[in-house]
Amino acid sequence: MSTRREFIKKTGTGVAALTFGGALSGFSASSYSRIVGANDTIRTAIIGVNSRGDALSDNFARQKGCEIAAICDVDRRAIEKTTNAVKALQQTAPKGERDFRRALENKDIDAVVIAMPDHWHTPAALLAMQAGKHVYLEKPVSYCPREGEMLVEASLKYGKVVQIGTQRRSWPKVVEAIRQVQEGAIGKVHFGKGWYGNNRPGIGVGKIAPVPDWLDWDLWQGPAPRTVFKDNIVHYNWHWFWHWGTAETLNNGTHMIDLLLWGMNLNFPTKVSSIGGRYFYKDDWQTPDTQMVNLEFGSDASLLWEGHSCSGRNIDGSSVGVVFYGDNGSLYISGGDDYKIMDKNGRIVKEVKSELTIDPQNKVSPAQQLDAIHIVNFLDGIRTGAPLNMNVEAGHKCTLMMQLANISYRTGRTLDINPTDGHIIGDSEAQRYWSRSYEPGWEAKV
């Protein structure tokens, strides 16, 4: 009998087979139930469960044929909370691990879900693929452009299924809206605009403090060069520090930029510029709370993204959204699974609504039922080789757009970009941000 790992490896490439001839060592009825092919169960580890990962644990545990085998977090409180919640949803209790690398050593685990801080995304995904695991990776796919390239390289080298967590790629009405744009419902599209608004509070001035006993601060930092612990970093405010986070551009902007790139069939830009600042509070927040991003694609098209982290007035009635502008009208997608088509005078000619309520301000689980479609697509990719709705290449591209915007912001000038590969042209200072320095011994490697 082939092992369940061999079976899943085959199904991950779309070829499924099981042979029977003898008993596995330690074979029993319960072990049989954990062999894919017996019940198509995919055993999964969730890594990082303080915020988004907690919601993903709940969602994955609810999917047929998926068992949460391990809950991993550097915060022992989070492990206990999420483990208990998952146990209530499935027959078996997941194992709690402070160090996710122990879960990677477990040959019975087939896939990992990564919802760690941004600086860990690519390094953790690389380790997972090297350990033979399939990967569901929350956005952004990488901390810096070079890491995104490494992720693409690794997905080809190791042949694993890697789904990127930009879930709108699977929302039915959004998919329908993008198809309308691509099929010419509003004519040729020359310009697209996206936005995000919120009223985030200040984070204060952090004080050096003892590391809490519930936190593995060394593992939390992982590949990032070491710094002292301050009391205003963990667990969410790290987003606004350049050392670990990637600003609102990648925290939320990647979702909207991805829709625009997808709908307009755009590849890499020719110019990128960004302005903004930290205007609303005097605190430790380093990234912009207000930012404008311009992406030019030669003479063919341009994109604009507008971010307001601390002044969240809605635009077109929604805190997040995109508008495509074409020769014959425009198409608007809000933060939910819906869209409107307007003529050139702004008159609504088609309106499609979702039956489900979306809360784009909910940073943990804004759309559980819709996100389940994306999760099932990932599981089907492992079982049958089904095409992924959001693959690594597309995830890298939308992430790179916003990374380039941040580089423009940090250097204070417009960047010239090679449209064939997205690389910066003729700017050595900007090129310094293409990769990052790592803590010795923690370097990311393909």
List keywords for this structure.
9-stranded mixed β-sheet; 6-stranded parallel β-sheet; globular; alpha/beta; single chain; 446 residues; 13 helices
Shape: globular
Number of contiguous helices: 13
Mean pLDDT: 90
Oligomeric state of the chains in view: single chain
Strand content: 15-25%
Runs in which pLDDT lies below 50 for 5 or more consecutive residues are 1-38
**How would you classify the helix and strand content by structural class?**
alpha/beta
Query: Mind telling me the C-alpha Rg?
Result: 22 Å
**How much helix is in the residues?**
25-40%
Number of DSSP-assigned strands = 15
Gap from first CA to last CA: 32 Å
Main pleated sheet? 9 strands, mixed
Side by side, the strands of the main sheet go: 14-13-12-11-7-10-9-8-15
SSE arrangement, N to C: HHEHEHEHEHEHEHEHHEEEEEEEHHEH
Question: Can you describe what's shown?
Answer:
The protein is an alpha/beta fold and about 450 residues long. About 30% of the residues lie in helices and about 20% in strands. The chain has 13 helices and 15 strands. The chain has helices spanning about 5-10, 30, 50-60, 75-85, 100-105, 120-130, 145-160, 170-180, 215-220, 245-265, 370-385, 390-410, 430; strands at about 40-45, 65-70, 95, 110-115, 135, 160-165, 190-195, 270-275, 290-295, 300-310, 320-325, 330-335, 340, 350, 415. It has a 9-stranded mixed beta sheet with strand order 14-13-12-11-7-10-9-8-15, with helices on one face. A 6-stranded parallel beta sheet has the order 3-2-1-4-5-6, sandwiched between helices. Helix 6 packs parallel to helix 7 and helix 8 (about 170-180) packs across helix 10 (about 245-265). The protein is globular and about 60 Å long. The relative contact order is 0.15. Residues about 1-40 have low confidence and may be disordered.
